[in-house]
Design goal:
Strand 1 and strand 2 form a beta hairpin. The protein folds into 3 domains: 154 residues, no CATH class; 93 residues, Helix Hairpins; 153 residues, 2-Layer Sandwich (Heat Shock Protein 90), CATH 3.30.565. Helices cover 55% and strands 16% of the residues. Helix 3 crosses helix 4 and helix 4 runs antiparallel to helix 5. It is an alpha+beta fold and 433 residues long. The strands form 3 sheets. Strands 1-2-5-4-3 form a 5-stranded antiparallel β-sheet, with helices on one face. Strands 7-9-10-12-11 form a 5-stranded mixed β-sheet. A two-stranded antiparallel sheet has the order 6-8.
Length: 433
C-alpha cells in the first residue's frame, strides 16, 4: 500500500483537526439547543398544569373528558374511569408523572397529576419546535461539511507553500544521487525517497572507499619496489665504494630518507583506513631532535633555525610514527611559510608548542588552515604567499590528531603582529587549564 506523501499528510492533519474541532462545536450547539427546547416545553407544560389545577379547584364539580383543546395544549380530566374514552389510546392508563412520547411522528410532553377532582392529563405538542431543532442540526451538518471541504482546499494551498520546497528538494536530491533509482521510489513518499537516495549515496561512498583503498594498496606496492632498489643500491654503494666522509654522509641521508618515506607511507595507509597503532613510552626530546635532524639541511637552506627546548628525559605515551609525522609536518610548515625565522619548540608530556617569529597567518585565514585545500584555494593562497602553495601537511596533522585523540590549536599573531604558534595537546584537560 502506498504511503502518504508529506503534502498529503499535512492536508490530512489540518483537515482532521478542523473537522474534529468544528464537528464537536456543532454537536455541542445541537445538543444545547435540543436541551433548551425540552426545557421550554417542560416549563410550558408545568405552567399549563398549574393553571388548569387552579381552574378545576373553583366551586362546582368539573365535568370529565376533554377540558382544553388548542393547537399546542390539550387537557383531560378522568374520574373513576369516566372520561377515558375521550383520550387517545396512548394516554390511557398512564401513572402520575412526566412523559415524552412520540406517537404518529409527533413529539409530545405529557404531565399526569392526581387532583381532588380526578386524574388530570395535560399534553403539550412540541412537534414544531422539535422540527426546528432538527433543521438546525441539519444546517450545522451542512456547515460542517462545507467547512471541511474549504479546509481541504486551504490545507492544500498551505501544504504547497509549507512543504513544497522540501518536496522539490527531495526530488532534486533523488535525481542527483548516483546510480539508478528504484522504480517504485519515484511514486513513494518523501521519507522513502530520501531513504532510497541515502542508500544510493551510501553504496557509492562504499564503492569509492573500496577503490581508494585498492588504489592505495597498489600505490604502496609500486612505491616500495623502486624505494627498496634505491635503498639497496645506496647501501651497496656505501659498502663497496671508497667514498669521502661527506659522500658517505649523503649516502646515509639517502637511506634514512628512503626509510622515512616507507614508514610514512605505511602509517598513512593505516591512518587513512582508520586504524590506530598501539602506543609506547617515547622520549619526547629525542623524537623532536630526530625530526629536526631529518629536515636540518632544508631548514638551513631556507633560513629557519629550530630550537628544541624540551627538558631531557621528558617522556610521552604515544604512537611513535604518528608523533613523528605530526612533528615533521609542523617543521615543514614552518620551513615553507615562516622562514627565514626561528622556531622554538617547548613543552612536556601534556603539550608541545611550536612557536615561530615569522610573518604569521592572517586572522581571516586561520579557520581554514587545517582544511584540505582545493585547487582554487591553493592558487589563491599561492598568490598571497610569494608563490608558495600550502599543501596537505597540516590536513594530515589534523587527521592524525583526530585519530590519536589529540588536539591542535593555532594562534596568530603571537607577538608584535608577527609569528604563529601551533599547540599540540596530548591531554584534553590541558585545553581548559
Amino acid at each position: 500500500m502506498r504511503r502518504r506523501s508529506l503534502g498529503e499528510r499535512v492536508v490530512f492533519a489540518v483537515t482532521a483537526t478542523v473537522a474534529v474541532l468544528v464537528g464537536l462545536q456543532s454537536l455541542l450547539a445541537y445538543v444545547a439547543m435540543h436541551a433548551q427546547e425540552d426545557d421550554m416545553s417542560d416549563t410550558m407544560l408545568r405552567r399549563e398544569v398549574q393553571q388548569i389545577v387552579t381552574h378545576i379547584r373553583e366551586p362546582g364539580l368539573m365535568p370529565t373528558g376533554n377540558l382544553l383543546d388548542s393547537i399546542r395544549v390539550q387537557a383531560w380530566l378522568t374520574r373513576a374511569g369516566a372520561g377515558d374514552q375521550s383520550m387517545p389510546p396512548y394516554l390511557r392508563g398512564l401513572a402520575p408523572g412526566l412523559y415524552h412520547l412520540e406517537p404518529d411522528g409527533k413529539t409530545l410532553h405529557v404531565a399526569v397529576n392526581d387532583t381532588e377532582e380526578g386524574r388530570l392529563t395535560v399534553v403539550v405538542d412540541a412537534t414544531t419546535a422539535e422540527t426546528k431543532v432538527h433543521r438546525f442540526g441539519l444546517t450545522m451538518l451542512v456547515l460542517w461539511l462545507l467547512c471541511v471541504g474549504a479546509t481541504v482546499l486551504i490545507a492544500r494551498g498551505v501544504a504547497a507553500l509549507a512543504v513544497g520546497p522540501i518536496v522539490a528538494a527531495t526530488r532534486t536530491i533523488a535525481r542527483s544521487a548516483p546510480g539508478r533509482p528504484i522504480e517504485a521510489a519515484a511514486h513513494s513518499d518523501e521519507a522513502s525517497v530520501l531513504t532510497e537516495t541515502f542508500q544510493r549515496f551510501h553504496d557509492r561512498v562504499d564503492e569509492m572507499v573500496a577503490r581508494e583503498r585498492q588504489f592505495a594498496a597498489n600505490l604502496d606496492h609500486e612505491i616500495r619496489t623502486p624505494l627498496t632498489a634505491i635503498r639497496t643500491d645506496a647501501e651497496l654503494l656505501g659498502i663497496e665504494a671508497d667514498l669521502a666522509p661527506a659522500q658517505r654522509d649523503r649516502i646515509e641521508h639517502i637511506v634514512a630518507a628512503v626509510d622515512e618515506i616507507v614508514a610514512t607511507t605505511a602509517s598513512t595507509l593505516s591512518y587513512s583506513a582508520g586504524r590506530v597503532v598501539g602506543t609506547e613510552s617515547l622520549d619526547l626530546r629525542e623524537v623532536l631532535l630526530d625530526a629536526r635532524a631529518a629536515l636540518e639541511r632544508r631548514a638551513d637552506a631556507e633560513g629557519l633555525s629550530i630550537a628544541v627546548e624540551v627538558a631531557v628525559g621528558e617522556r610521552v605515551q604515544a604512537d611513535r610514527q604518528a608523533l613523528v609525522t605530526v612533528v615533521r609536518n609542523l617543521f615543514r610548515n614552518a620551513i615553507e611559510h615562516a622562514a627565514p625565522a626561528t622556531l622554538r619548540v617547548t613543552g612536556d608530556h601534556r603539550a608541545v608548542v611550536f612557536s615561530d617569529d615569522g610573518p604569521g597567518i592572517p586572522v581571516a585565514r586561520l579557520p581554514r588552515v587545517l582544511e584540505s585545500p582545493s585547487r582554487r584555494g591553493r592558487i589563491d593562497e599561492a598568490s598571497t604567499q610569494g608563490g608558495r602553495v600550502r599543501g596537505l601537511g597540516l590536513t594530515i596533522v589534523k587527521r592524525l590528531c583526530e585519530l590519536q585523540g589529540w588536539q591542535l590549536a593555532i594562534r596568530s599573531p603571537v607577538e608584535a603582529g608577527r609569528g604563529c604558534a601551533f599547540t599540540l595537546l596530548f591531554e584534553a584537560v590541558v585545553a581548559g587549564s
